[in-house]
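Purpose: get a first structural picture of the assembly so the mutagenesis plan has something to point at.
Setup: two entries, given in the order below. No constraints added.
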Amino acid sequence: MSKSDVVVIGNGFAGLMSALVSADQGKKVTLLSYGAGTFPLNSGVIDVLGYDDSGKAVANPAQAVSAVADEHPYKKIGIQALEESVKFFQDVVAAEGFPYVGSLNEQQWLVTGVGTLKPSCLIPESMQGSKCFEASEIVLVGIKGLKDYYVDMVAENLAKELGNDKKYTVVTVDPHYQGARDLTTKDVAAWMDTEAGYADFVSQVKGNAGAGKVILVPQILGLKGNVVYKKIVAELGCPVVETTAMPPSVNGLRLRDVLLSALKKKGITVIEKAKAEEAVIEGSKAVAIKAGGEVRLQTYNADKFIVATGGFYSGGITMRDFGEAKEVVFGLPVECDCFEERWVNKQLFSDKKQTFAKTGVRVDATLRGVDESGNVVLENVYVVGRNLSGYDFCFEHSGNGVALASAYKAAKA
Amino acid sequence: MELEERARDSADNCIACTSCVAVCPVTKANPDYRGPKLVGPAHNRMHFSDENDYEDSLKLCSNCKNCDITCPNGVSVATLNMLERAKYYKAHPEKHTQADQMLSHNFQMADMLKSIPFGRTCANIGMSIGEAMGMMGAMGIAPQRKSPRFATKYFREMYKEIKQPEGLTKEVLFFPGCFIDTNDPEVGVAFVKVMNANGYKVLMDDRFKCCGSPLVVGGYLDEARSHADNNVAIINEYAAKNIPVIACCTSCSLMLKAEYTELFAQEEMAQAAKNVYDAFEFLTILAEKGELKKVHVSSDKKFIYHAPCHLRAQGMGMPAVDLLKEIGVNIDSADAGCCGMSGSYGFHKENYETSMKIGSELFDKINASGAHKVVCDCGTCREQIKHGTNAKTTHPIQVLAKAYEQ
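Result (structure tokens, whole complex):
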């Protein structure tokens, strides 16, 4: 394998964006992947900051980002990189024919798969829950046989959110499914991608469409970008809104396909099932990563490395015992409040962040790992996404926002 | 000696995240299949004690390994499926069909035909007649397909007639695998040419048996084990002499490098694996050491490459494409996922429709590419590509051998 300018380790959202931004800088990029990244579980929407430290809903993400605590990755990334990264992302997905709406100055609203509302920042056109706000009638579409989507519950919860002065109508579509397994949203989306499936669906829903109404569907509007969305909105003559979904997340998969397509156009090499096992260090620099299958490792040389291997969940950070958390590839310094008594906030849905969730690599404003005195450990190794310390993405709804902005900043460095 | 870390225990690492279901080609094509995580890992994790416990869709897995490629937690999903399948057939040998028997034991047929005068020619004529008369379907084999014909001379016979240059000091042992040996021996001939040109003498060892991949998918695990033990002993014998073992078939190399250890968890297998290389993996190592013969191709003929899933599962990228590009071949990866054949899977009558549906994306890409030939390391992938398109196919080692000739 000839030498690359940049090796990115990890192929979640942060990894793919790091690779894309690097390639956009004219760099020769190799991306080492192990597993599918988090996309099948990822909503594929970009939350930048949904809730502040006290758990209060954020109305203007740009303003709230400027006010985060010093330990927060956004503080290190800075608002300028965040703004540029949002523009970069929107350009990439738009060029792939899958535009995202939204800006840093306001929140978008999603309807979740259980009928609640959730704030986000950048979302695909098909998921604009705010279209429900003005409608006089919400037509909720259920799918016969669809797993994990209870349309009556969605209707009940949505009425609590949006009020009872609207009319809520439930329609159940029969996909005439003959198989032996439970249907997933991905199955139904694939059915919608076929001409016959699309026509069948439209014929069962069309009678309920009309002015002043919104058609709310589970995440089933095709697997290919916004093709089905554009077609069906034109055909039904009223807004159509997709909810978020249980895994496999159709929108996460759409976003992955779109980003992989962009990667391919940029000539980025993706090595599959290549687990990064060993870093080759010379002095204060990394010179290569050894990665590969069960039997032997290949050596991937580069001038620069971006770590996007994820946190505990993805195995980028592990901890055998309290106080022994580590970053697995380079052994970069991990910081956390590693004491058993403070580790977990036992009230899962409380108004406090989880300590374990804030565990990650300690970095400076360049996103390079630093020791306790603030000295950079490896000059050419950058850390992005869930590898970073100081934030609880679940609590504050900032996962893909931190991933995007940190990827952008690290790739530009 | 049994290894402490066993692939079958990796089921406990499954967090049921559904990534494998999202990418599984069979799940996508066949609504009866519940998806990888709900078959092997779920079965295994529940530690079903009763051998009669059976999941209907267990037999639908093609062992293509896309689940393993996708799993973020290192679960050997496909192998767990195969182990569960084997458990079932062990308890219910009567459930094996005639097609299972034939497609898993093609190596026996090949050996038998070799021992009969004109056996192979007669068998090939027999296949043509059988296909024309519609007899394949009655045996459970997809009647739409043309079965691969037996070569009138197997590679093991051709090898004996090849005059390798005198004085080659370095040696490698070739593991031809059934398809190259008995169906497509020219790949082996090309391999010898390439290795000779790089200063290596190619050895053969007639004690090698089929790698066992078709036995595993057929649910004949005990037989596969005996093949594994046989082959592993030979590989380790050569390892002691510092002679690497090289395969041109990526399903064989995956079996020797990874699946033996996953399935049977034996120390000797893990040891042997270290001495096995895919041909282009080996050539790439030579290139990195500056020892690969330099050549430049100036033809602008366009090739399209299909990466076999069993190569992708080896975690080393696409060494054949990288190397061919490096020497100037105009080649691009189709990047269209699984071809749908997965060894003997697509030959089963009941899998035919699924197999062709899976391959359709690849067929479309190949048809639209206008490429002169499709390059692919896997023999049965090439059969599928020829069946699903009108394209000509070749093994990358043949492209390289040709480049060396010019």
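The two ends of chain B are 50 Å apart (CA to CA).
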